[in-house]
Amino acid sequence: MSIFRSYFNKNNTIIANSEVNTAKNPVTQLFYGKSPVSKCINTGYSGDTCQGRTGFTTTVTEGFSRFLFDLNLDDLQKQVNNCCFNLDNATHTLKMTNTSNFDDTLLNDKVLIGDTRRATSFTLMLFKATSGHSWNEGVGYDYLVPFGSFEPDFDLTYSTRPSNWLSATTLNNWFYPGIYLNNLPSSFTSLATQYFDNGNENIEFSSPSLNFEINNLITGATSSISANTYGIAYLPAFENLTGLTEAYSVGFFTRYTQTFFEPFLETEIMDTITDDRSNFNLYQSNRLFLYLYDNNGNPRCSDTQPTVDIVDCNDVIQLQLTSTTLTCGAYYIDLAITSLPQTPPVVYEDIWANITINGIAQPSVTNEFIIYDNAFSIGPNVAQPKIYGYSVSGIKEDEKISQGETRKVFISTRVPYTTDEQVLLDNLQYRLYVTQGTTEIEVIPWSTVNMSFTQNYLLLDSSWMIPNEYYLDIKATSNQQVDTYRKAIKFQIVNQL
Description:
It contains three helices and 35 strands. The protein is mainly β. The strands form eight sheets. Strands 1, 2, 7, 8, 9, 10, 11, 12, 13, 14 and 15 form an eleven-stranded mixed sheet that branches. Strands 16-25-22-18-19 form a five-stranded mixed sheet, with no helix packed on it. Strands 26, 28, 29, 32 and 33 form a five-stranded antiparallel sheet that branches.
């Protein structure tokens, strides 16, 4: 499995019926209920105050906010164009970190301003406006008009420059105020929803509709992302609530956070290589691979889909198959054999043809595989766990890696009490994480390590990794025993100079 992250180009939080812009704030405050930007009206009574002004009182109105964003899919599109990512095996998840995720004392607390309480028991939706717009991010930070000694000439946090509730750019308004009308379903499309119980959960939007939307943007089946507006908002039922005396708010880190928790779209590609050529067995599904590389060791893709003939030991063609693309330079077939005229082990051949690179036909390739009959142990004895020793190469301990590098990391598995007897494992896993204090923040969840004909390895693409210190763990499972090797290696991702 490969993980790839696409980050935001721009974002902004807009507030209903207000021209305020809060794009540069490191946190987006999504709220509904009593509007925190209610206006002051003059009463003439000295006992009334509003935002530090005597003789004024606050009008109580309902309000809500919406978060807008624009994704940068350029790097992901490059991966797809060079055939390294097969979108048929891809799922996409939009992730944002909740600002109260790390402190339970913030639950149900009043936050930021008076009469604003942490929201609980609500549903957010990921939406796409049906009327696309190009829009400007803006330079605002806060949504309250400053008052007192810093009002207003010396305060740079408050801005009404677009985008805001009414305007997409200086010259153009939104087709609908606020991008869409919550009482007009045709003005927006809900791509995914997520229910929040306590209100401190992180955003993890995923759905078939989101997969379809992102895949179509990458392949060009729909208009480019610059012609669309995406965002996050409460369901219309929450935005339309009336009579509330408090605002209910939830906060998430935006692209301007100075922490590790920058929001992103995570693309997960099921491209793990498990090559059974070295241990091909009867009575189970086996996978055989063909790898295409140039003289420099760079993976290449065939213009045509390779075909495979399975030939027995008597030179008789038993099967003719068409391969499937897994990732750049890797093609496979799934093959299950349940009977043989000979007694295993038996040598068969797989002949790969119809290979074309840059329009030039390549010669066919003949490989061999041995069919065994040792996939299962059936009898009265209980198998013992297999314990191995592990070493990691391809990255040095505490190495500083420039962001953008791709490393091939090898995990060598040695038989105990030997120095050079190595084995290949198809159940070896790894995970990647960073630490924030005593908390571990998972970057890549437990994923299966690739197993080729000769080695266990993983590809580490640092192009999307935020500069930080990373840790790699290894886990192996044998006869229901799980052995985890913590912090097998530590390295740092640093900014390119």
